[in-house]
Amino acid sequence: MFKELLRHTRHSLDPLFNPSAIAVIGASTTPGKVGYQVMKNLISGGFSGVVYPVNPNHRAVLGVRSFPGLHEIPEPIELALVCTAAQRVQGIFQECISQKVPVVIILTAGFGELGEQGKALEASLKSLARASSTRLLGPNCLGVINPLGNLNATFAQGSALPGRLALVSQSGALCTSILDWSLKTGIGFSRLVSLGAMVDVDFADLIDYLGDDGPTKSILLYIESVGDARRFMSAARQVARTKPIIVVKAGRSPVGARAAISHTGALTGSDDVCDAAFRRAGVLRVNELSDLFAMAEVLASQPLPQGNKLLTTEVESKQVFRSYGIPAVETQIARNEEEAIALARKMGFPVVLKVHSIEITHKAAIGGVRLNLLAEQGVRIAFQELENLIREVAPGAQFEGISVQPMITGKGFEAILGCAVDEQFGPIILFGSGGSFVEILRDRAVGLPPMNRTVARRLIESTKLYSALVRPQTGFEANLEQLEEIIVRFSTLVINHPEIKEIDVNPLWIGRDRILALDGRIALYPPVQDRPPLAISPYPRQYESDWALKDGTPVHLRPIRPEDEPLEVDLFTTLSEQTIYMRFFGMIRQLTHEQLVRFCNIDYGREIALVAVARQGESQRIIGVARLVMEPDWQTAEYAVVVGDPWQHQGLGRHFMELMIRYGKERGIREIHGDVLAANDPMLRLCEKN
Predict the structure, then answer these.
(1) Where residue 301 falls among pLDDT bands split at 50, 70, 90?
(2) Which of 420, 414, 433 is nearest to 503 (CA)?
(3) How far apart are CA 13 and CA 136, in angstroms?
(4) N or C: which end of the chain has fewer CB within 10 A?
(5) Does residue 18 register a pLDDT over 80?
(6) How confident is the model at residue 477 (pLDDT cuts 50, 70, 90)?
(7) DSSP secondary structure string, 309-324?
């Protein structure tokens, strides 16, 4: 509510729900046609604004004067509804843009759902929308209903009762069914939107808008595909903190079998990834439409709960793991029996021998592993057997040797840590029970990078393996912090290398006093193929820099991190009552844990918070924070800054503002605004100079 009161600019989607003047392009006098039903719904629904039919073949439609073209309408149009044939839509949309219509709804079908020609039309509409300030809903959608404003801009046969639930659906047919069902059950809506093909306006846009929409208490989504995954996750994570978001995702059935290089690829279906993404965003998923409404009503009344060369070998993979601080067992290649025996002597018996070949990814599945070799003769025999096996399994491949590694003994658990790529949400992280029976046990949890220690712990806790690790009699609980750190480092590895398609660390051996990657493989994309982007923006390390206050005190500026919560508390203790009043527009005695979580655990795709860190002896402290938060239109942003009293008048506030202006330009922000009390002379002077 506070943000809604402070919003200076009108949201780009306001005319979608509260237009003052509507043009119906393709309005018809023929019952049964879309243009007829749209006009009928607008007129009979009690819409208080003005409706202009546009059709050169009629003087009037349903008793309302018709105009031959959009440009002949005597007042600015805020919402245009297009009901014409598909081949005319592009020209009409261009006319809407030239007439500066803020929002256009294309109800017409006949686009991507009909094949390549329709997809080309969609692509043209997308290009036009991106190059203009006109927002486009559709094409091939049912339209929009705002029961609270008596607006029924659809061709549905009925309207909706007023209520506090907002529904956003890709399927127009589903919207119609839900309308029928809701009228029978007496369930009302604040907003109802059919997205259609999502050429421009998508789920992220509507989630953003509805998050600040006062009448909307819960948001219901029917999703076939999320659209831009990063923007969806950014919007959902932001809004789900204050309003329940409940989703039914089409396509619950398992994905069909596919050839996968890694166990992770075989274990992760698109539905698993959606579940993980929704959990990470704080979105609740239900299975049935009836559950959608029941869950929303309950939550609204309750407080929110708190190719060959594209595959690296095992040896190469372990080198990569070690470079990211992921411990891996020593592994070396023997080209012949004598080299294998020499390596075994050096490492110490018992040892393990494995096939070493780019052609063979699942070694245990073909019998390509020999364990617990206690003497030289056993190593010699194992080498011969594995060399023959490689020649049988991959007869055309060049023999590259056999890998040798020490046998890890003692009590431990075998886990798997992996990465695969989902077409919608990009890279995903998998953790669970590993070893030879990984695909039989199917004990795994899926999450999205980037990961911090908290997210990593939640991933671990979602598996059955976790129960075994925390049993007091096993003594493995002390290793959980190390396991968290390994998962975080693994996440960093994935983020830093977009050429990675799949990774398996299997088994990841968890012992009483150490954790080791015993085997691993990495599959890469071909050089010409790009990986889908991360759904959640990673830590923006590029905004780290060093600077100095006027008195020479060195400071390090960097984006805020979740673990900065204690340092934020320390900063607050340095603020005088006047500084607190000027920054927060009122007196605050202390920051709550909930406030600190929101300050420190941010979505870097939506906002940036830079902290200035000064060293005091062996410790560090935050001496100031600047924050830039993007508005839902992604064109404007709100700026806020606070500097601890001991470090004021040292140039830090000005430097913060310069950095944020530079950041805003990089992100395409056209306007930066902020609220400043009239008595805050230093901030007003700073704004005037910048």
Answers:
(1) low
(2) 420
(3) 10
(4) N
(5) yes
(6) confident
(7) GGEE-HHHHHHHHHHT
DSSP string across 559-575: E--GGGHHHHHHHHHT-
Output the pLDDT for position 674.
Answer: 85
Report which secondary-structure segment, H or E, holds 466: helix 464-469
The order of strands in the sheet holding 351-355 is 332-334, 402-406, 351-355, 369-373
Q: What is the mean pLDDT of residues 311-317?
A: 85
What is the reported pLDDT for 179? 87
282, two tokens? 């704080």
The first and second tokens of residue 310, run together, are 């594209």
Phi-psi region of 536 (alpha: psi -120 to 50; beta: other; left: phi over 0): beta
> Residue 2 pLDDT more than 50?
no
- Three-class secondary structure of residue 125 per DSSP: helix
Q: How far apart are alpha carbons 158 and 548 in whole angstroms?
A: 65
If DSSP codes are grouped into helix, strand and coil, which group holds residue 153? Answer: strand
The per-residue DSSP string of 4-49 comes to HHH--S--TTHHHHS-SEEEEET--SSTTSHHHHHHHHHHHTT--S
Q: How far apart are CA 613 and CA 184, in angstroms?
A: 60
Joined tokens for residue 554: 């060195």
Scan for tokens 């902020």, then name that residue.
Answer: 674
pLDDT at 302 over 60: no
Query: How many CB atoms are located within 10 Å of the residue 218 CB?
Result: 25
Q: With CA atoms as reference, report the closest residue to 524 among 542, 497, 548.
A: 497
Q: What is the per-residue pLDDT for 5?
A: 29
Element (H, E) at 655: helix 652-666
What phi and psi values does residue 503 have, to the nearest 5 degrees? -140, 140
Helix, strand, coil % in the chain, rounded to nearest 5:
40, 25, 40
Residue 128 has pLDDT above 60, yes or no: yes
* Cα separations in angstroms, 332 against 316, 356, 370, 483, 510: 10, 10, 15, 25, 22
Looking at the predicted structure, is the pLDDT value of residue 123 above 70? Answer: yes
